Amino acid sequence: MQPRWLVSQLEELDYQTDYQLELVGSLLQQAQALNRLSLDYIGFAKSDVFAIHELYDSLEQAYQAASQQAQMRHRRVEEQSDNASSVAKHSSQSLDDAHALKQTWQQQTEMAESWLSQAQTHLSACIEATRQARVDSDRADSELSRAETQLRIARAGPRREVYVGKDSQGRAIYEYYPPDTSYEEGRVAAAQSQVNACRAALNRAVSAQQAAVAERDRADAQLHGARQALADASTSVDMAEQALELAHDGQRQASSSLSYSQHCLQVLEEVKTGLQQFKQTCQQQSDVLAQLDNQANQALLQLRDVANSQEAIQGEAFSLKYTLQDKAALLLAFDQPLGRR
Fold first, then answer.
1. Fewest CB atoms within 10 A around its CB: which of 50, 116, 201, 285?
2. Which UniProt keywords apply (predicted)?
3. Would you say 61 and 270 are in contact if contact means Cβ atoms under 8 Å apart?
C-alpha cells in the first residue's frame, strides 16, 4: 500500500470529519432554532388560551347574569299572565253584572214610567174632582146666601097678630109674634148643611189633589232617578266592555311575553350547550398545549444533551484530526527519499 494513497485517505477522512462536524452543528442550530420557535409559538398559544379562558369566564358570567335575569323575568311574566287571566275573568263577570244591573234598572224605569202615568192620570182625576167640588161648594154658598136673604126678608115682614080673648072691659086682646120664618130657617139650615158637606168634600178633594201631586212628584223623581241609574248602568256596561277588551289585550300581550320569555330560555339553553362545548374546547386546547409544552421542554433537554454530546464529539473529532494530521505527516516523511530525510 502506497504511503501517499494512505495520506490521501487520511486527508479525505479528515475532510469528512470536518464536514460531519459542520453538518451536525448546523442541524443542531436548526433544531435549537426550531425549538426556540416552538417555545415562542407555545408562548403565543398560552397567551391565546389564557385569553380564551378569560373570554369563557366573561361569557359564563354574562350567561349566568342573563340566565338569572331571564328566570326572574319569566317568573314575572308568568305572574303577569296569571294576573291578566284573573283580570279578564273578573272583567267578564263585571260585564255580566253590569248587563244584569242595566236590565234591572230598565225594568225599574218601565215601572217608574207606569207609576208616573198612573199618578198623572190620578192627579188629573183629582184636579177635576177638586174643580167639581169647588163648583158644588160655590153653588152651595150661593144657595145659602139666597136662603139667608129670604130669611132676612121674612123676618123683616109684619108681625103676626093672634087673638087671645077680651079684657074686663070687653075689649079684644091680641098677642103679637114675629113672622113665621120656619120655612126659610129650614132652607137656611139645609143650605148650611149642604155648604158644610160641599166644603168638606172640597177639602177632601184638595187633600186628595195634594196627595196626588205628591205622588206624581215622587213618581217623577223615581222615574228621573231610574233613568239616571239606567244611564249610569249603560255607562257601566260600556266601561265594562272597554275593561274586558283591555283585559283581553293584556292577556294577549302577557301570552306573547310568556312565549317570548320561553323562547329566551330556550336560546339560553342553546347558549349553555355552546358554552359547555366551548369549555370542552378550551380544556382540549389546554391539554394539547400542556402536551406541546411538555414535549418542547423534553426536546429542549434532549437538545441540551445533543449539544453536550456534540461538544464531546467535536473534542474527539479534533483529537482524531490532530492524530490523522500527525499520521499523515509521518507517512509523508516516510515516503520521501533518504537523502531528503
1. 50
2. Coiled coil
3. no
